[in-house]
Amino acid sequence: GQHKIKFIPEMVGPILEMTLIPETELRKATIPIFFDMMQCEFHSTRSFQMFENEIITKLDHEVEGGRGDEQYKVLFDKILLEHCRKHKYLAKSGEAFVKLVVRLMERLLDYRTIMHDENKENRMSCTVNVL
């Protein structure tokens, strides 16, 4: 209800951790919570900046810690885009947000993979992409 906004941004990290558990059905059931958070903050402040900042920060930390995978990136993209595109006010800004996070995930996953590469040029190139 009206108290949902009190859980943003504090609950973004714990919910992100839950959605990153490599279980497809759990991911499908919990990723929509992010849209609910976006919608809740948007209705309260006309933006979802707090949510956006928090999820990007937490996602960086989680992927660096070894969590997340290609399947998560695909589900995140598919599920959140579906929800955003159905929403009158979040269609455009929500889609831009989802695309931003998906690109970030691609780069973070690449970075995590390449860090074990012996080729310093590959690592530097990947680092530049993340930045």
What's the quick description here?
By secondary structure, the protein is mainly α. Helix content is 74%, strand content 0%.
Report on this structure.
The protein is mainly alpha-helical. About 75% of the residues lie in helices and about 0% in strands. The protein has 7 helices and no strands. The radius of gyration is 15 Å and the shape is elongated. About 20% of the residues are buried. Pfam families: TPR_DOCK. GO terms for molecular function: guanyl-nucleotide exchange factor activity; small GTPase binding. InterPro entries: DOCK, TPR_DOCK. It comes from Colius striatus.
Characteristics of this structure?
single chain; mainly alpha; 0% strand; elongated
Oligomer: single chain
Number of structural domains: 1
Order of helices and strands: HHHHHHH
Please identify the structural class as seen in this structure: mainly alpha
- Nearest-integer average pLDDT: 91
Measured distance between first and last alpha carbons: 38 Å
Evaluate the radius of gyration: 15 Å
User: pLDDT below 50 for ≥5 consecutive residues: which ranges?
Assistant: none
Query: What is the 3D form?
Result: elongated
Q: How helix-rich are the residues, as a percent range?
A: over 70%
Strand content: under 5%
Please report the number of helical segments.
7
Question: What does the largest sheet look like?
Answer: none
Protein name: Dedicator of cytokinesis protein 1
Domain Dedicator of cytokinesis TPR repeats region: 1-79
GO cellular component, one term: plasma membrane
GO biological process, one term: myoblast fusion
